[in-house]
Amino acid sequence: AQTVTQSQPEMSVQEAETVTLSCTYDTSESDYYLFWYKQPPSRQMILVIRQEAYKQQNATENRFSVNFQKAAKSFSLKISDSQLGDAAMYFCAYCHSGGSNYKLTFGKGTLLTVNP
Amino acid sequence: EPEVTQTPSHQVTQMGQEVILRCVPISNHLYFYWYRQILGQKVEFLVSFYNNEISEKSEIFDDQFSVERPDGSNFTLKIRSTKLEDSAMYFCASSYRPWGLNTEAFFGQGTRLTVV
């Protein structure tokens, strides 16, 4: 069974600084997808960024980027130039590839605080 | 921007009562999901639904749970006889293709269920 581990229950960062959230996962599959979701106080989970395991290039979305290390099964999220609106719970999630796969496996989340 | 909407936002129910959680997925989406998040724990997959039938379910989704798409727009989760341990945030999500095909899925804001 796949597992996703986020070892940092809480992190804090100063506004405009950079923060990295850690995620490791365990799978025997070779083809899969990894995601970071943001859950602000409004509770709605919003996709931040995703990575295809077959791609070596790390995904980036504006101030958000990942460091995907397939051999180490590590998928960290870097937030640059942190803003107050980035404060939220961040979940790392895994999904193995295939048209018959319907579920995400989530980590426990990291609560990010952004200090002004 | 299209969004998944869930009602009610908060429901309090007596133990042993039946409860129905409602979701309106994005209109052209074909795959529907329920997840739950017990306070302080990870988000867990409950069930996925496609073409008017369950495509996958977790071990949590026992006979007390059922899902239905009664009218082509709503997607409901019914818990027949609620237990205290059913208290959680329940999230609905929808997507155009299965997660395993690297599609983006959208989550609703969740329904907080409190069983007393």
Explain the overall architecture.
The complex is a heterodimer of chains A (about 120) and B (about 120). Chain A has strands spanning about 5, 10-15, 20, 25, 30-40, 45-50, 60, 65-70, 75-80, 90-95, 105, 110-115. Chain A is mainly beta. In chain A, strands 2, 5, 6, 10, 11 and 12 form a six-stranded mixed sheet that branches. The radius of gyration of chain A is 14 Å and the shape is globular. Chain B has a single domain, classed as Immunoglobulin-like (Sandwich), CATH 2.60.40. Helices cover about 0% and strands about 50% of the residues of chain B. Chain B is built from no helices and eleven strands. Chain B has strands spanning about 5, 10-15, 20-25, 30-35, 45-50, 55, 65-70, 75-80, 90-95, 105, 110-115. In chain B, the strands form two sheets. In chain B, strands 2, 4, 5, 6, 9, 10 and 11 form a seven-stranded mixed sheet that branches. A four-stranded antiparallel sheet of chain B has the order 1-3-8-7, with no helix packed on it. Chain B starts with a strand and ends with a strand. Chains A and B meet through β6, β10 and β11 of A and β4, β5 and β9 of B.
Number of domains of chain A: 1
Question: What is the CATH superfamily classification of chain A?
Answer: Immunoglobulins
CATH-assigned fold name of chain B: Immunoglobulin-like
What is the CATH homologous superfamily assignment of chain B?
Immunoglobulins
Radius of gyration of chain A: 14 Å
Radius of gyration of chain B: 13 Å
CATH architecture call of chain B: Sandwich
Which percent band covers the strand fraction of chain B? Answer: over 45%
The interface involving the most residues is between: A-B, 28 and 29 residues
